[in-house]
Amino acid sequence: MSTSLRVGIAGLGTVGASVVRLLVRQDAALQARTGRKIVVTGVSARDPGRDRGVDLSGARWFEDPVALAASPDIDLFVELMGGDEGAARAAVETALAAGKSVVTANKALLAKHGMALARLAERKGVALAFEASVAGGIPIVKTLREGLAGNEISRVYGILNGTCNYILSRMEREGLSFEACLADAQRLGYAEADPTFDIDGFDTAHKLAILTSLAFGSSVDAEAIHIEGVRAITLDDLRSADELGYRIKLLGVAQRTADGIEQRVHPTMVPKSSAIAQVMGVTNAVTIDADAVKELTLVGPGAGGEATASAVVADIADVARGIRSAPFGLPTATLEVAARRPMQRHEGGYYIRLAVHDRPGAAANIAMRMAERNISLESIMQKSAGRGASGASGAPVQVVLLTYATTEAKIREALEAAVGDGYIAEKPQVIRIERE
Ligand code: HSE
Description:
The protein has helices at residues 14-25, 27-34, 65-70, 86-97, 107-124, 140-147, 162-174, 178-187, 196-199, 202-216, 235-244, 305-321, 362-372, 408-420, and strands at 5-10, 38-44, 60-61, 76-79, 101-104, 128-129, 153-159, 226-227, 246-257, 260-271, 283-290, 294-301, 347-356, 377-383, 397-403, 406-407, 429-433. By secondary structure, the protein is of the alpha/beta class.
């Protein structure tokens, strides 16, 4: 193959502009590595007049990304617009239907329509590549799909959202408010256009849905994911976690169990000594448990222009080389439609923070409600607000419990019973513990 690869790029935001810059900077190296010259022949973006600091004089401007996707002047369509419907979906479908390979960073689109798009790519004999959709610059898609082909994977979990990890890290280290940290993440270009996608866990869930399919050879099933974000995490939780030897991270976890695949996104207590606990700031990390390799953790930049562009350019290079892997690692017809293990059946340890009315019998009552369901307590810590010699201040006190492994259903039942007994003043805070 010696002809040029003609690339059309839709979306010239932080990532799109970085892709153009990287293609220019690595032009000679990419040509040497792939045997082809890679040329951007078409672009589409909202504001053609904006200075993006990149030279686009050689590329034709398209107002409509779908027209770019259909253009006979491109061989490969790169979608960097985002959004699970609308122009992004229409343009990707158009490109694939026209027999052009597609490279995308669009995790929301893949989580929702990944199976249909993979089937279309398969029918047309073209590539659908999405390394940049999960964990920014970390080559996790290739690692799962190609690098670990000789393994049976039992669990994949990770910090998949740079914005949330940045917020939690700064709250923990600097005692700053959630809002102040989020504003900084937005200013630094880490957050999604709508940051609720980050902080409410949806961005992590989209990425987890893709990882689960790649890890287990199953159909993408984003609707099966239990999702909780980081809004409810307080400085008190971060301090208590620290005292107990843990850090709090927003994790996406997918696990194969005897009852099916469990997929969940929620704030998680991880032991401070674990590899994942060391990951601070916008950095992402993914840990894979597999039979041959045992445990593998990949750590790297999870967001930001250049890091994400690195993954996009790697996919472009694959297309230039003529590499076309099955998007989710197997022919779509052979992907398993796996049973879903519901969250109520989740098994693990729990951190529970309660605001308790400071009356005799309160702690005993809560312990009793746990014991009735065979929940064993690893530790119990009461944080007294300080009160007079009479022994009654009236204000609720914080009680933090750690449990040994139990089930979600038992924890929820015990807390409901304890709340009904009248000792608990506010909605209990529940954070699951993830062991290495
Ligand atoms: N908003 C995402 C994050 C960007 O914070 O990780 C990368 O998908």
